[in-house]
Design brief:
With about 450 residues, the chain is mainly alpha-helical. It has three domains: about 25-145 and about 285-310, no CATH class; about 160-260, no CATH class; about 325-450, no CATH class. It is about 60% helix and about 5% strand. The chain has 25 helices and four strands. The strands form two sheets. The protein has a two-stranded antiparallel sheet with strand order 1-2. Strands 3-4 form a two-stranded antiparallel ribbon. A hairpin with a 2-residue loop joins strand 1 and strand 2. The two termini are about 15 Å apart. The model has no long low-confidence stretch (mean pLDDT about 95).
Length: about 450
Amino acid sequence: MAFSEFILNARFGYGIRPGATLFASPEAMLNSLKQPDPLDKRFVRPSLGDRFALDAVARTALRNNRQGKGDMSAEYQEARRAMRRVVAEDMKAYMLRATISDNGFRERLVAFWGDHFTVSGKNLRIQLALGDYTDSVIRPNIAGRFADMLKGVITHPAMLMFLDQHSSIGPNSVLGRKQGRGLNENLAREVLELHTMGVGASYTQDDVRQFAELLTGLVLARDGFRFSPNAAEPGTEQILGKTYGGDPAKLADIMAFLDDLAVNPETAAHISRKLAVHFISDTPPADMVDQMTAAYRASDGDLMQVYAAMLAHPAAYNPARQKVKWPTEYMVSAMRALNLGEELAGGKPRELANVLLEPMRGMGMDMIRPFGPDGWPEEAEVWISPPTLAARISWGKSLAEEYGQHVDPRELLPQVLGSDVSEALKVAVAGAESKWEGVALMLVSPEFNRR
């Protein structure tokens, strides 16, 4: 397939925003990732320390109540409300950045890697850490080495809490012998199975166990994590045929293994295929995955080289729309199509929930609570079922009715979907009784729901 500027921007971004400048080449799109994101200054969110300070207030109030040190119910409830406001503003910032950004590829990569390293907000404390997780670990590393993102993810409190690593204690450590606390293998297993080598790779249960022992010592701190030698399993670990660790245990031992794991050939193949599945097709061409894997291995996991190999392959410009948009993608691309921004999400958490979050749940996605540690599914049938399709249609119709009253759908259609649309859709849009109904027909069409 020949290169298409339109497909490059529509498929690898968050949808076309009428009037926005398009990237003219894959090189231009890739080079943009190396530049500072101008939206960073606009979307400054609370630090992790400030977030945890709110949680500390709530925990202190709750503890004092239980110990009979006075009624602090009001302080507890206010702290919890403040925590929920931060979480709501995080979600609003996430959606708004994607909607107004001039660099849709950057935002799509943030979404991809955030999903690859899934953290599900199973409680408010984890939800509170999620915004910082995205902004301090995912965003800064999308154009770097996979190893750097991996190490940042593994040591962030959001991941430590989600997979209970912060409570994993070396059985023979000082704390393990004193308190009788033991090992948790969750993080070790998910790192090998989901984040790096992949399901069915060549690691064994013994590798998982030894890796879990190596990971002990990672505990929460007021503004992040710290390494506690007293909680770490002493001695060496044999993982994937190599020795790590010692006595005393050190954080550097964990980092040394993660560096090796990041450049493992099975990791290269797993990451490359997952990128191709997400951006191209549920069944991407084998030679595309092979070329991406080769680029990964030759560069020791330089993600820019892997993206370049993906964008250089002819299949990247196949005119067929092979991927169904996730609900987040669908909503963002619809808002971009209508040049929306601040006005849609509203200024209050309740407005955000009514306009975006509750309709999104109807489409099958709870934004901060993925189904499990493996993240959101890629298969089309998961996202397009009778109830979820009905939710898309209802939301798309409402959006068009509210914001498409003065938009000419006949002009909008080729701008947003290009020339490769069915004749039936062109006729339906042109023949709609009103402008907004024409816009609605475009937003609920199969062409718009795929990329």
